[in-house]
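Progress report, Aim 2. The chain analyzed during this reporting quarter is listed below.
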Amino acid sequence: MIKAFRNFMSRRTISAKARNHIMNTFSSYELFQKIRSETESARQAANRPHEVLYFHKVDDPYSHLTIQCLEQLKSSYEITLKFILVGEENLDAVHEPSLYNIYCLQDVKRIAPFYNIDFQANEYPAKELVDMANSILTAVQPEAEDLIEIATKISSALWQGDAAALDALSSSYFATKAEVKENLIQGNKIRDEKGYYFGSAFYYEKELYWGVDRLPHLEERLTDLGAKKLHENQNICSLELNAPKDLKSDQKLNLYYYPSLNSPYTFLSTKRVKQMREDYPVNLITKPVLPMLMRMMTIPGFKAKYIISDAAREGRKHNYEMKSIYSPIGKPARKSYSLFPIIDEAGKGFEYIEALLKASFQDGINIGDESFLQNVVTDLGLDWQVIKKDLNTKRWKKILNDNVEDMYAGNCWGVPSFKITDQDGSNPFYVWGQDRMWLLKEEIFKRIGG
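Predicted structure tokens for the chain:
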């Protein structure tokens, strides 16, 4: 039963009807509002404070960023912040561990300067330093006023490889290996019970917020509930960007876009990719890949729930809301992909993928329906009688396989991923996720206008 739910989006374990029902439930704005209303009513009835849980993993680069914001979060909102130390990620949720570790470190090094946070580590901390950091934090009393201050010092010392600083702290705070092990087990248990799987995350009243990227959603919710202190009027941990809204130049860069037809985050990105093509000097090259579930990967139910609900929340933020979902996993995706090569050769590759994603995540349409595909092709100004000759052919398979290999070359395995190169294809800069589209602009601006 557990295995079946873990693979709930796979055509092998659940019917399309049931899969679509689950996805629409997770993304429902009405249910989202209902849960928020009910949890707030229950909190008030129980006279509970606004309690925010924070899951911290000492050797997680993202946790180093997030912990820099905790003191300001506490001082800006009338909340009780509960610090929970966690250990290893839930491995069911990590699909490419080696790529994951490389990418996380690289990503944090790139984005930290835009938060005015110092992070220059080129490698993960040594195990003995990680053990020392966990020992110190296990020994600090959870209710200690200076817990966040100590944890912040530990994080800086750990990522700088400052064994002397950690050793000095351990003279005041020390826990045995058994105590540390039990503390991490309990922390992971709480994290897992809340439906999450990594560190650097917040939990508040049945909703999860990952790191500095999702902290604004938590702040908005707390503000709506009247928990923001009156003297505070700006979000904490805000990005300080250099790239302008639009950039004009005779010089162009290549922007490679790796979308998947079953990805809610890819759906969210299309509107902004289209806008970037209009606002920035780029040649947009669309390189679709198979969905992870069709690449023989599994997505645990708890992760799928978070992804879909979080993507729905992000969609509302970017005014591109998911509405009626019809997952294209399996035959609909294969059928649609079969037409991509010939449509891309006609110069409409991005527009085709955009139309398919809108159909799947807004209009609730089965994109494998031939009459739908005919209408899309016609709307793109192409001749259906010419295009349909490639329907259900196999040419697309090698193209998508090559695209995946190219994506993996940049330590990216999920979608949407992006790559910027100079016009001749050199100097590649890979980015994973719709969260990092601002970073694409920063890189383009640095190369052309900075």
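Residues 49-224 form a domain with the Glutaredoxin fold (CATH 3.40.30.10). The beta strands are 51-56, 80-85, 201-204, 207-210, 253-258, 282-286, 417-421, 429-432. These observations will guide the mutagenesis work planned for the next reporting period.
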